[in-house]
Design brief:
The chain is α/β, with parallel strands linked by helices and 352 residues long. The protein folds into two domains: 79 residues, ATPase, nucleotide binding domain (Nucleotidyltransferase, domain 5); 237 residues, Nucleotidyltransferase, domain 5, CATH 3.30.420. The strands form two sheets. A five-stranded mixed beta sheet has the order 7-6-5-8-9, with helices on both faces. A four-stranded mixed beta sheet has the order 3-2-1-4, with helices on one face. The chain is globular, with a radius of gyration of 26 Å. The structure holds 5'-O-[(R)-(carboxyoxy)(hydroxy)phosphoryl]adenosine and zinc ion (ZN). Zinc ion (ZN) binds next to helix 4.
Length: 352
């Protein structure tokens, strides 16, 4: 029932103007920055100069308009954005980017030897676990995916089961689990089965992955331990920093099974790509938050090496979700002439 609030942006000529207006006819803010000074010197409006002046003035004008209107949470309080489409100066081209394509292309931005198409990627994060064959822009084939939980999700849930405190250095639960696992001594003997091992020969499951069963094995193990030896469990819980003991040994057993499963699937997918599809990848790429895991990086490197391929992994801050990968994919698409119409739709479910 409340009135709508819309932010309006005008940049068609030499005024950068931002307003916040409501449907009950109130102008809650109006901020206008004139470019007269810039254009006086050239004796008229130079479009490129105007465009630069707009982009310099816009962020401040938007911030000021929102502040003046008393808008604290634009996400909740702004119902729509209205922008000038014309007539007037042409706006910048708009490039729509698929988030997963951006993950896969990141090494072409970051690596000393940028991967050339075709290449294979393992994209592993809290939301996805994909084995992808990339043969060009918009030419990606999903060869394998998780049938249930993403691998990062499993790392997060196991870390929570083991009550592992997060590290001050970041990386969330997954990074904490890696550090605890590094302290394992094997003093507490435990192993977890590698998922889908016996399904290796079945075509349907050979390239896919599963992490929910592994996660459940860890839950059950911890539950049984808590019930059968509560004293040992509470003693193990005493440490608040990565240290050896039951929690470290369980963390490592989980990590070993998860990493082995991923390495195994990369192996299968490489074999399939080369021998069945007759496509020879130039290298292997890994990205997504889980690719920050050193044990995984080493194992994937070994598998790639078996096929004479190098592995390319962006630095951790560009492995996780970031806008640099979106901008880079924009550059790749722009270079290929893949500019989108201004009437660009949001795509909630977008197959690669
Ligand atoms: O790509 P990302 O930042 O966000 C999305 O999920 O899209 O990935 C986050 C995931 C989390 O599940 C986190 O626990 C996991 O990556 N992660 C790790 C490590 N660092 C982050 N998993 C294993 N080992 C790590 N060192
Ligand atoms: Zn992502």
């Amino acid at each position: 029932d409340r009135p709508w609030t819309v932010i309006g942006i005008e940049t068609s000529c030499d005024d950068t103007s931002v307003a916040v207006v409501t449907s009950d006819r109130r102008v809650r803010a109006l901020v206008t920055r004139h470019q007269t000074k810039q254009h006086e010197a050239t004796g008229g409006i130079v479009p490129t100069a105007a465009a630069i002046a707009h982009s310099m003035a816009l962020p401040g004008a938007i911030r000021e308009a929102l502040e003046t209107a008393g808008i604290r949470n634009a996400c909740e309080e702004i119902d729509a954005v209205a922008v000038t489409r014309g007539p007037g100066l042409a706006p910048k081209p708009l490039v729509g980017v698929h988030h997963m394509e951006a993950h896969a292309l990141t090494p072409r931005l970051t690596q000393e030897a940028p991967p050339e198409f075709p290449f294979l990627s393992l994209l592993a994060s809290g939301g996805h676990t994909l084995l992808l064959l990339s043969e060009g822009l918009s030419r990606h084939t999903i060869l394998g995916t998780t049938l249930d939980d993403a691998v990062g999700e499993a790392f997060d849930k196991v870390a929570r089961t083991l009550v592992l405190p997060w590290l001050p250095t970041g990386g969330g639960a997954g990074a904490a689990l890696e550090q605890w696992a590094a302290h394992a001594t094997g003093g507490y003997a435990v192993t977890f089965p590698v998922p889908m091992r016996d399904g290796r020969d079945k075509p349907a499951s050979r390239l896919n992955m599963s992490f929910s069963g592994l996660k459940t094995s860890v839950f059950r193990h911890v539950q049984t331990l808590q019930e059968s030896d509560p004293a040992a469990w509470s003693a193990a819980m005493a440490s608040t920093e990565p240290s050896s003991g039951i929690r470290a040994d369980i963390a490592r057993a989980f990590q070993d099974a998860a990493v082995t499963h991923l390495a195994d699937r990369l192996d299968c997918v490489l074999a399939e790509t080369i021998t069945v599809r007759k496509v020879h990848p130039t290298c292997v790429v890994a990205a997504g938050g889980v690719a920050a895991n050193q044990v995984l990086r080493a194992r994937l490197g070994d598998v790639a090496g078996k096929y004479g391929l190098r592995i390319e992994i962006p630095p951790p801050r560009l492995c996780t979700d970031n806008a640099a990968m979106i901008a880079w994919t924009g550059i790749e698409r722009l270079r290929a002439g893949l500019v989108d119409p201004w009437a660009l739709d949001y795509v909630p479910k977008w197959p690669l």
